[in-house]
Amino acid sequence: MKFSTLAAAAALLAGTCPAQAANIDFWYGNTGAVETAIKAQCDAFNAAQSEHKITCIGQGSYEILMQKAIASYRAKNAPVLLQVLDAGTLDMMLSDAVVPVQDELPDVKWGSYIAGARAYYETSKGKLFAQPYNASTLLFYTNKTELEKAGIAKTPETWEDVIDAARKLKAAGSTCPFVTNGEPWIVFEQFSARHGLPIASKHNGYDGLDAEYVFNTTLAAKHMVNLAEWRSEGLVRLAADTKSGNLNTAFTSGECAMLESSSGSYTTYTKAFEGKYELSVGMAPMYKGHERHNTFVGGASLYIMKGHGKEEVEGAKAFLDFVRRPEQQMSFAAATGYVPVTNDVLDAIGKSGESNSPKYATAAIGIVSMSEPATPDTRGIRLGAYIQFRQIWTEETQKAFAGQQTMQVAFDNAKKRGDELLRRFQQTYKGVALP
């Protein structure tokens, strides 16, 4: 939506970070190991050349970053480069606040980007609107040590296998065989993608703003019913059910033996497991009898914002060229677990002699997962106000987990409330064609 409209719906923060003269400001929303890797990349860019200087400013989270970006754009002091999470794609495309990256860099071989990363951020004509950056996808992690103690020799590949393993773990004394935070990106969006299920009509909104949600009638609804039942059986725990109340801590401490999580969590797990447990990582589980399709790209992409002079834009383009280099993608992947976004990087990893190194474990798996057979419903999600919808979906499903309503009612309510958001968004852009 236009930033002026989105601003009315968002809780804007008062402070902004005005761009500094002769600097290229880049705002990002990550913390922890990813923030460390971003800062290292910014330092490397500044050290590699003297024509431009980038100032990289963390905003604490994707959501806070979006709020500040809205305010800064309206105040005419927005950064040149902005990192935006996947769910904000349509809002950015229709905001009139950014320049399509492929327009600014027409000579880049954009076809080298893996299909799963391109599809989420490109227009109907195949033009990339933003440059994929910290790309993640959903993977399945297990504490292989604990599984073997329970007599489980093979890593589960289907949901039926996962629950069979969970029962064995419970019988062996585990209080948390499988853990999830119940976030929509994990248990709903990525589940729908790899099972080839639509989230909304019009191919998840790609074919028009008049889309309606349909997820309440698909296998995704049954899966959430199953998760609630498995939780009652003691096979699945929500993060809030665990000792720490935190998804990653519950897994890294050894309390919980299995989980689905972002490829970007890989380094967190390997560092915590070192000398204690053996980690396994693979593609997220399927239900038996269903064909596997591509998982969505997660994480975020980089936008060039309007309102800046030629010199600043040239600096932004230089930075985008820099982070696209295979060696930069390799170092970023090794430091974070995020997935490389261009096909040539796997070749570069192979030539490096470190293709079997644990630091690149998620690179090949992640690319394979995002490169499985695609359908018009697995390109991505092109729905307005989707960040707000995620909040609605979470609110309704948490009520179901708390026993206040059934999971099917939660899905039906989320569909109804989500459609209301879509109609308001559609009215805001009445007569506007999707790019």
UniProtKB/TrEMBL annotation:
Protein name: sn-glycerol-3-phosphate-binding periplasmic protein UgpB
Location, primary (coarse class): periplasm
Gene3D superfamilies hit by this protein: Periplasmic binding protein-like II (3.40.190.10)
Secretion signal, residue range per the UniProt entry: 1-21
Cross-referenced InterPro entries: Bact_solute-bd_prot1, SBP
Record's subcellular location: Periplasm
Swiss-Prot/TrEMBL keywords: Periplasm, Signal, Transport
Quaternary structure and partners: The complex is composed of two ATP-binding proteins (UgpC), two transmembrane proteins (UgpA and UgpE) and a solute-binding protein (UgpB).
Similarity annotation: Belongs to the bacterial solute-binding protein 1 family.
The organism of origin for this protein: Rhizobium puerariae
Annotated function: Part of the ABC transporter complex UgpBAEC involved in sn-glycerol-3-phosphate (G3P) import. Binds G3P.
